[in-house]
């Protein structure tokens, strides 16, 4: 099992080993190379207390620890990223090793633009209702421009910007942006997904 192998590896001084079959499966299911998966395992283990490291495959890392990763620390969407990739039943945004791998896989340069745009859409969908409405767009703009007084848009500027975004993107004119409409925007502007923090 993953745990037994990891425990043996930990005793040998290197907790970065995963069983070959598990490694192969992870490679098939992600956009990551074997080396990247092993490095991810090492990084994930290091986020755990020492006594839990040998069971890294079955442990969950709390959100507070995930947010210490340099890649997330400065990301304006850090809380949404944890929410979207966490499979925690408690909705505490903690992550299992597989959640962590999924996140790294989507952030990887090898991930397709369709996968990146799908996750960017989920990250921007703050109320998790499957569409980007005015409230989501307002939060999105605030995340990108910062919350400081000097960078905050006035109500008029915000209203104008959201109107422009909807005019440009809301193909069926229902006042919201669905996933297909969002992917259409991204296909015309590949840099857009980067704003979802999907570029590390």
Automatic annotation (TrEMBL):
<dbReference type="GO" id="GO:0005509">
    <property type="term" value="F:calcium ion binding"/>
</dbReference>
<keyword id="KW-0479">Metal-binding</keyword>
<protein>
    <submittedName>
        <fullName>CIB1 protein</fullName>
    </submittedName>
</protein>
<dbReference type="InterPro" id="IPR051433">
    <property type="entry name" value="CIBP"/>
</dbReference>
<keyword id="KW-0677">Repeat</keyword>
<dbReference type="InterPro" id="IPR018247">
    <property type="entry name" value="EF_Hand_1_Ca_BS"/>
</dbReference>
<dbReference type="InterPro" id="IPR002048">
    <property type="entry name" value="EF_hand_dom"/>
</dbReference>
<keyword id="KW-0106">Calcium</keyword>
<keyword id="KW-0460">Magnesium</keyword>
<dbReference type="Pfam" id="PF13499">
    <property type="entry name" value="EF-hand_7"/>
</dbReference>
<dbReference type="GO" id="GO:0000287">
    <property type="term" value="F:magnesium ion binding"/>
</dbReference>
<dbReference type="InterPro" id="IPR011992">
    <property type="entry name" value="EF-hand-dom_pair"/>
</dbReference>
<feature type="domain" description="EF-hand">
    <location>
        <begin position="112"/>
        <end position="147"/>
    </location>
</feature>
<feature type="domain" description="EF-hand">
    <location>
        <begin position="157"/>
        <end position="192"/>
    </location>
</feature>
